[in-house]
């Protein structure tokens, strides 16, 4: 099985891609906290998906990139977008909006590597080695250690919000597998643009049916939206799609274990949330788990 990013033949941008992806992806929790008082979740995501599709379309047109050919190409990209962006982000934002603590949401999302490893073999024919399983297990322990103090102080957890968040994690798991199987040779820019079109077509009707359209155009909301579009949805997603193409999907999924620790560190720096010694230990364990899984 190939490594996630073989250092012997990878260019410097490719070597830096996993770490950069984790840093960008971890800011998603910061954005969610920043914009929550200013916009309803599905309304915010609809605007985010629409703007992202426009930005990526502009990049693709300026580069004269190749667009998906025929209905099948568009279908494959839009299905991936519905799963990776639409259902996953809708579920997480809705669950947090309904009272699920962000730490619990991060912990639920960190189950993705286990789900990916469990189904990668039957669906993709990928053999998940014992070393990779070990790395996935170690990463899960690390993520749990980081979030342990938050679990203890969370109080009541809305069961429906927890269930919806888990469904979102299942969705991004299958979306990652779908992308690995169906988008072997597509242009990442046009594929990502088509993905966000699919996410918008899925999310906008839900927002119109279930929400009032709150979107107050405050400075925090505009800053959060700008980063969500340019940093998370354009930068982060293009890096993720590139990693999926280059590496074994179970190894790529193991990177998600680093997101809760990095998010906790960001919360400490930006919002003054303290880190207990057990959380610092969890960060080290999570990094170790990813290192093991990436070489499995």
From TrEMBL:
Membrane topology value: Multi-pass membrane protein
Record's keyword terms, sorted: ATP-binding, Membrane, Nucleotide-binding, Transmembrane, Transmembrane helix
Chain segments annotated as transmembrane: 12-36, 42-65, 77-96, 102-121, 161-178, 190-209, 221-241, 248-270, 276-294
Pfam families documented for this protein: EamA (PF00892)
Subcellular location: Membrane
InterPro entries xrefs: AA-Vitamin_Transporters (IPR050638), EamA_dom (IPR000620), EmrE-like (IPR037185)
Protein name, per record: Peptide ABC transporter ATP-binding protein
Species, as recorded: Methylobacterium indicum
């Amino acid at each position: 099985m190939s490594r996630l990013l073989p250092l012997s033949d990878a260019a410097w941008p490719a070597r830096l891609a996993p770490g950069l992806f984790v840093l960008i992806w971890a800011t998603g929790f910061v954005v969610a906290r920043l914009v929550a008082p200013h916009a309803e979740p599905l309304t915010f995501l609809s605007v985010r998906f629409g703007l992202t599709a426009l930005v990526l379309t502009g990049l693709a047109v300026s580069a004269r990139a190749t667009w998906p050919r025929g209905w099948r190409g568009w279908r494959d990209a839009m299905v991936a977008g519905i799963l990776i962006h639409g259902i996953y982000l809708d579920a997480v934002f809705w669950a947090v909006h309904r009272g699920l603590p962000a730490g619990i949401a991060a912990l639920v999302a960190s189950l993705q590597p286990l789900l990916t490893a469990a189904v990668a073999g039957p669906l993709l024919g990928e053999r998940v080695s014992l070393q990779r399983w070990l790395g996935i297990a170690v990463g899960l322990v690390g993520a749990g250690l980081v979030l342990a103090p938050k679990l203890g102080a969370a109080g009541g957890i809305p069961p429906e919000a927890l269930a919806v968040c888990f469904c979102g994690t299942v969705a991004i798991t299958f979306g990652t597998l779908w992308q690995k199987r169906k988008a072997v040779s597509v242009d990442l820019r046009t594929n990502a643009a088509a993905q966000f079109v699919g996410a918008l077509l899925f999310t906008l009707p839900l927002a119109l049916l279930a929400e009032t359209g709150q979107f107050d155009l405050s400075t925090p909301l505009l800053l959060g939206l700008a980063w969500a579009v340019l940093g998370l949805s354009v930068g982060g997603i293009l890096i993720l799609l590139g990693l999926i193409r280059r590496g074994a999907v179970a190894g790529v999924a193991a990177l998600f274990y680093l997101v809760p620790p990095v998010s906790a560190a960001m919360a400490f720096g930006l919002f003054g949330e303290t880190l207990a010694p057990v959380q610092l230990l969890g960060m080290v364990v999570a990094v170790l788990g990813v290192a093991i899984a990436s070489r499995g």
